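FORM 7B - TANDEM STRUCTURE REPORT

SECTION 1: FIRST PROTEIN
SEQUENCE AND TOKENS:
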Amino acid sequence: MLRLSRPLPPRQRESTIALINVVFLMLVFFLVAGTLAPPLDKEIDLISTATTERSTPPDALFVTSEGELRVEGTTTTAAAFLESLRASGAAEGELEVKLAADRNLPAVRLVEIVGELRQAGAVKISIVTELAAE
């Protein structure tokens, strides 16, 4: 009597395409939901405007409602901030300051701070605001 071996069942292929699709969808989700800019100072409520261009101020000078100047959470002065800009490689004629002021800061104090920055050598001063919800 001759014994024949049973045929092996066909081998199922691993489906890596499904795994790649899941990883790709997770990547897209985190790109859309993630934050790419550093967070703003939590004690600062920015001034709201009705129309403005969206941009992030990574190297902004923050002003609290009491008129205190801050950079990355540490207190500074206008002259010290501009000196750090010079040290980071900004040319003397191109010193640009992005000023993110608290909405409760009195306008008189804001004008004083802008004057201090101009006296310290700032050429261009921009006020950072947030877009008001409609």
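SECTION 2: SECOND PROTEIN
SEQUENCE AND TOKENS:
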Amino acid sequence: MKFFEDFVGQAKKMGKLVCGDVFLRERTLDITEFVLCDGIGSGVYANIAAISCASRIIELFKAGITLRSVCEMVADSMHRARKEDIPFSAFSAVRILHDGQFTVFTYEAPEPILIRDGTASILKQHFHTASYEVIGECSGMLSVGDSLVICSDGVTQAGLSHGLDLGIGSSGLVDFINHCLSRGCALKELPERILKMTSLVSSGRYEDDTTVAILNCRESQQITVLSGPPIIKSKDRDFIDEFMTYPGTRVVCGSTTAEILSRELKRDIKLKNAGTSFGSPPEYFMEGIDMITEGVVILNQINNILDENPGAFSYDSPVERLCSLMLKADVVTFMVGRAMNYAHSDLIFKQLGIRPRETTIRLIAEKLKEKGKLVVNKFY
């Protein structure tokens, strides 16, 4: 399964409190969308304009409107902004399907760049009009190892009035990327290198809000977490069969869930670690499963530490190791059984602040999405 990770570097215009460039991403199993908006001017007004534009594009995406129509609608509204006192923003909008097929639309924004086989080149765009506004469009297919580069004009106009009449331009950016790649620069380091270069050619200043994003195609790292029995007992077999079809790391959270797994697969469960404390619950072993541990309690603990620095994890506890596995994964799938466990309604659970399974998993999922993960919740 292909995954499209993003590396973003951003710097605000010198003397401003906030950046007038804003980016948003949205991931589903079928589509990855990335939007970079550059609000007119700088500071708070530009920031608000960019947030408004990016949010509008993403919400129209979610409503099922085609990318072309979304971009035409937004560009048309920008035409009004040329005459009226309403926020104006340039934008680049990228949509990548699960197989790597991509389309990029740009409006008043620099050309997209493709990195393939270690070499960057400008993507040729076709232009069409939306009412009175001109939109650039290009498309293609991303293979594993390929990357798209999009940026705001703070990058391509760097150097303007500092010896470069039109700034470095897209061709200058391509030359710089190729220079860096030929010297072994890693993709994740490239945005910061580009930012430093734009500052350097502008006498050590950021003359404009400056953002560069690299969208890299690679094989995904996947983890699937099975927790809770299905609400319909006769579905146990289907529940387990589906779980075993998922590639990558497989984790089971819950003793009853583990018993169902053992029964349906006819495999023994063995105690691996009895656990030493409330913060270090027991762990079990079964052939073909990467981790088996407790359910609701461990899920609550994961939710509590998910935003902590992984460098502080000791990895002695399954809580910290499972948390680390989730943070390393690109795609996290939760298969959640909704059968009622009446023990979880005991007052002691509320006294300890332990939330129900489904509530906790939804909280974990939101945190993982904020960290750029593709999260899939499936309930049974």
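SECTION 3: OBSERVATIONS ON SECOND PROTEIN
The chain has two domains: 2-219, 222-379.
Residues 7 and 188 are 6 Å apart (CA to CA).

SECTION 4: SIGNATURE
Preparer initials: ____
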